[in-house]
Amino acid sequence: MEVLPVSIRGAFAGLVEDLTGDPGVVALGLFGSWARGEGAASSDFDVLVVDGSGLDYEYGEVEVRGGLVVDLSRVPLGWVGEPVSPQMDYRLHEAVVLHDPGGVLGAARGFVERVFMSPRRVEVRTDGLLATSEMQLSRASAALSRGDSETASAYVGAGLASAVVVLMDVAGVPVTRRQFVWNLRRACVKMGMEGVYREFLAMGGVSRVSREEASEVVEGFEATWTGIASFVSEHRDMLGGIHGKVRRDVEYLTGGPVLGGILSRVGEMVAVDNCAEAVVYLRGWMLPLLEGFAWVASSVEGVKYDYTSLFRVVGGADEGVREGALGVLGLVGVGKRAAGEALAGARRLVGDLRLDRRRLVESFVG
Question: pTM for the full model?
């Protein structure tokens, strides 16, 4: 734990000791900003928890110890087995092993270190990113066909964000929520693709964001989060009927420490006029929050949730949450034409990336 400040090692060590007392915990690793040596006052502590209890999905939890906010990412043991899941690559690449009596985490980390920037491994990871992007654009298309321009536009934004991570991966730039815009710029400059960077900002409406505008988005996000958290608390008895992963994600996202961490980090961004970064950061949290809210709302109504009707479900449950989310996502007044043009532009960008990916890998990897 030498990467941590001396003043907090004791509190952190206590948390690690408690976690290792759980018989289901196979291994622990520190990743994120502290593992990269970039930890700041507002940074939480990201801990990878390898779970051997039979878990078949990932979920997050938050622990607060001695003023420290610790983000626990529980993942199935099989994800760090043989073969190591590519979706673990980013975390394993920077992981500091904290507890690993069976050597499984160390072995997985060693494997990832050997292959992380090999052309084949980059192709596998980026193929997964493009598949995720295409899934989100498929949702956008289905929503648009049903006349739901708001849902369509929300998933266009998500699809674009997933797609441009391909450029960060190929360029060997860290993929982080806090520096998403900055690292995308670094990647595009490195590869001579500044036009893609500018297009991403333009399509998201964040090419020029003032401090006042960013502050309004922060206020809107906090108010919308509060509305969602209140609704979930009021209907907590309905969570038992939702799939385990969705339930845990909802509980995680609506927990007070998560909001506190988000507001602390985004406040730092706005304070130094890093306003586009702040807005993109908040939008990255807003969509999964809305999805969780919609799952609970659908459960309350006793109907099956459909991602392609996201905003219709949200608006039916709480119009204030719908309006607040539209403000955060920059979608107030979005119409069918604008949504269709955005979808077409996103499909073109994603298609170009898929066609050009092999050339980029050959030019910049290995």
Answer: 0.93
